[in-house]
Amino acid sequence: MPRAEIRLLKNLEEYRQCEPIQRRVWGTLGVGSEVMAVTQKYGGAVVGTIVEGRVAGFIYAFLAHFHGRLVHWSHMMAVEARFRDRGFGFRMKLFHRKLALERGLKSICWTYDPLQSRNARLNISRLGAVVDQYVPDCYGHFPSLLEKGLPSDRLVVNWRIATARVRARLQGESPPVDASLPRVNETRLTARGFPENRVIRLDLTHPGLLVEIPAHTGDMRSRALPLARRWRLETRRIFERYLSAGFRVEDFLPPQPASEDRCFYLLRRSPRG
Question: Which of 6, 46, 56, 89 has the fewest C-beta atoms under 10 angstroms from its C-beta?
Fold first, then answer.
C-alpha cells in the first residue's frame, strides 16, 4: 500500500485537488479552493491525506461558536473511494484534534446523517463524541449523491477533544453497553431483507434507551427509496422527541454477527455541559 502523509494542505494546487473529490463523493462542489485557502490562513484548518503526491482525502474546518465556546466546525470530510477502509478518515481526525488542542480549542463540531452507520461508529463509538442536537433538513434540498433526494437531516456532533472520555475512546477503551435496555423502536425485515419499524415508543422514561437504525442505508436508498424515506421521518420523530427531553447520544453499537447485523444508538438522559 502506498505511504500516506497526513498534514495541513499548503497551496492552491492542493486545495484545487479537493474540488473533484467533492464532486465524486457528493455530486456537487461545496467549498472552492479560494475559500479553503482563506480559511486555512485565518484560523481554520484544511487537513489532507497525501498519497503519491496527490490529495486522497481532506477535512475542511472553520472557526465557529457552539454552546458559547470557540470551536473548529468541521464542515467536510471526504476520502476518495479507492482509498477508503484504510483508516485515513480516523487518522485525519486525530491530526485535527492535535492541531486544535495546540491552538487552545476544546471542541471540534460537525454534522452527519444519523442513518449512516459507518459515520455513527466513527463519530460516536471510536472518537467518543456526543450528540444533543438534531437538525431537520439541515442543508435543505441539495444534489447529493448520498442523499437521493431525501431531507438532509443531521445530528450535530460535539467532540470535546480534551476530555477523559475522548482520551479513553482513542485508546480503545469503551464501556460495555447493556443490550437489554428498553428499545424505542422494534423492527422486522421486509421481503427484500431491509429492516422496517414495527413499533415506535415516544413515551419511555428509562434513563438509558436503544434506537435501532438500518445497517446499510446506502443500499436501502438505492433499492427501496420509499422505505428509506420512512426511516428518515420516523427517526426524526424519535431523535427530536428524546433529545428535547434531555437525552443525548452517548454510544453506538455497530453491526455485528452476534446482533444479526443490527446496530443501535445508546441514548442517556444526561445534564448538558
Answer: 6
DSSP code, position 94? H
Our CA dihedral for 85, 91, 96, 101, rounded to 10 degrees, sits at 140
pLDDT digits (tens, 9 = 90+) for 131-163: 989 999 998 877 677 777 899 999 999 999 999
Half-sphere exposure of 36 (CA within 13 A, CB side): 27
CATH 3.90.1720.10 corresponds to the domain 4-170: no
Rounded to the nearest angstrom, the gap between the alpha carbon of residue 29 and the centroid of all alpha carbons in its chain is 19
**Type of residue at 224:** A
Return d(Cα 121, Cα 265) in angstroms, integer: 9
Nearest Cα to Cα of residue 212 among 191, 241, 234: 234
Q: pTM for the full model?
A: 0.92
How far apart are alpha carbons 25 and 80 in whole angstroms? 7
CA gyration radius, the chain: 19
Strand (E) or helix (H) holding 133:
strand 130-135
